[in-house]
Amino acid sequence: MSGSKIINGLSEAIDHAKGFSRSATEHRVAVHRVDVRAIRESLRLSQEEFALRFGFSLGTLRGWEQGRRQPDGPSRILLRVIMKDPEVVERAVVNG
Question: What is the pTM (predicted TM-score) of this model?
Answer without folding.
Answer: 0.66
